[in-house]
Design a protein that fits this description.
Layout: H1 3-16, H2 23-30, H3 35-41, H4 44-51, H5 58-69, H6 81-94, E1 103-109, E2 117-123, E3 126-130, H7 142-160, H8 167-178, H9 182-190, E4 202-206, E5 213-218, E6 221-226, H10 237-245, H11 254-258, H12 268-285, H13 291-301, H14 307-317, E7 320-321, E8 324-325, H15 326-330, H16 341-348
Antiparallel strand pairs: 1-2, 2-3, 4-5, 5-6, 7-8
């Protein structure tokens, strides 16, 4: 079937199905470079009905989708891999939160030719864009596109584990390690909002260093808490003591004490969820599985200076996660510096 006949059939089917196609969309579909692109254009109504029920502007959704499916509609400076990925992410952000995991950036690598790669965008099972094979990884924003993919994957996990990562879940997980005695844990739960257990009501700690428990004394009572080690961040022992009596600690009640660091890099659950994504970023951007080695290699080669790593830093810093960001969660040490024009558009949302 020719492109023209395919487009005509598609238009007929779309209109027959009750979809409204304006003149611009009809022209875009008819001018699509292939029947495959025309078919992708025909998906937009189904995509909007299924994934965009939150009141997002239909015209904006259609405009972004068209630019992704038929990139030739855009000037050449808007067709770089990073800008294309940014546009796809804008579309993803406009989707209903529960459906965003259907919007995926995929990185395709040629195992026989390590420098050759491509990227694609998919919505559910439909690939709406597939790039041509690319080389010159740094000049073609390979690292940056991979980083955006990592941000999206991390977002998907945050949504999937949202109940586990809630503040109430953090509070309960901390209570579970504050004492080995269930009766003490229940006492803490009952007194969570009692202002008599605020920092300003704290008196002192007691108990021998080698004991399995210690006592936290407040003006109106005391709590017997676990003094065991906290090698993996359990809320007990020295960590708990420091949070109770430390000069920098502030809490109005036990609930605030137990939920300190919520959605920051002090939140061990958040660090745990982010860890696989840091590993995946390593795997994508460096064959030696080390971002620090990658820094040295890029700086030594000076293919594009250190802009790739500077851009990664900016992308991760601008990926806000609660009270922190992915850069801090990943505990990276990437160079600072000016970002290039394409990245400025991405970071500032100027597109």
């Amino acid at each position: 079937m020719t492109t023209t006949s395919h487009c005509s059939s598609l238009l007929s089917d779309s209109l027959g199905g009750g979809f409204k196609l304006n003149d611009r969309r009809i022209g875009t579909i008819m001018e699509a470079a292939s029947g495959n692109e025309a078919a992708k254009m025909g998906l937009i109504d189904t995509i909007i009905d299924k994934f965009f029920r939150n009141g997002a502007k239909r015209e904006r959704i259609i405009a972004l989708y068209e630019q992704l499916v038929v990139p030739d509609l855009c000037p050449s400076n808007e067709r770089t891999p990073i800008i294309m990925a940014y546009k796809f992410n804008k579309l993803r952000e406009m989707a209903d939160e529960e459906h965003r995991h259907h919007f995926q950036i995929r990185i395709n690598q040629n195992m026989g030719q390590q420098e050759i790669w491509s990227y694609s965008f998919s919505i559910r099972k439909d690939t709406i864009f597939q790039s041509e094979p690319l080389d010159y990884r740094y000049e073609n924003y390979y690292n940056e596109v991979c980083t955006l993919k990592i941000c999206n994957d991390f977002d998907d996990d945050l949504y999937e584990f949202r109940e586990v990562l809630s503040q109430s879940a953090l509070t309960e997980s901390r209570i579970q390690t504050m004492s080995d005695d269930e009766s003490v844990r229940e006492e803490i739960r009952e007194k969570l909002d009692d202002p008599r257990y605020a920092k300003e009501q704290f008196s002192h700690l007691s108990g021998a260093e080698g004991n399995s428990t210690f006592f936290a004394h407040f003006t109106s009572g005391k709590l017997e808490l676990s003094n065991r080690g906290n090698e993996t961040g359990e809320f007990r022992g020295n960590l708990l003591k420091n949070k109770i009596e430390g000069k920098d600690s502030k809490y109005q009640n036990l609930r605030e004490l137990c939920s300190y660091g919520f959605m920051t890099k002090d939140d061990s659950r958040l660090v745990y969820v982010s860890a696989p994504h840091r590993t995946h970023l390593n795997n994508y951007i460096d064959e030696d599985n080390s971002i620090l080695v990658n820094i040295q290699r890029i700086l030594q080669n000076k293919r594009v200076g250190n802009s790739a790593l500077v851009n990664i830093r900016h992308i991760l810093q601008n990926k806000k996660v609660g009270e922190t960001n992915l850069y801090d969660l990943f505990e990276l040490n990437l160079p600072e510096g000016p970002i290039n024009i394409d990245m400025a558009c991405l970071i500032e949302g100027a597109m």
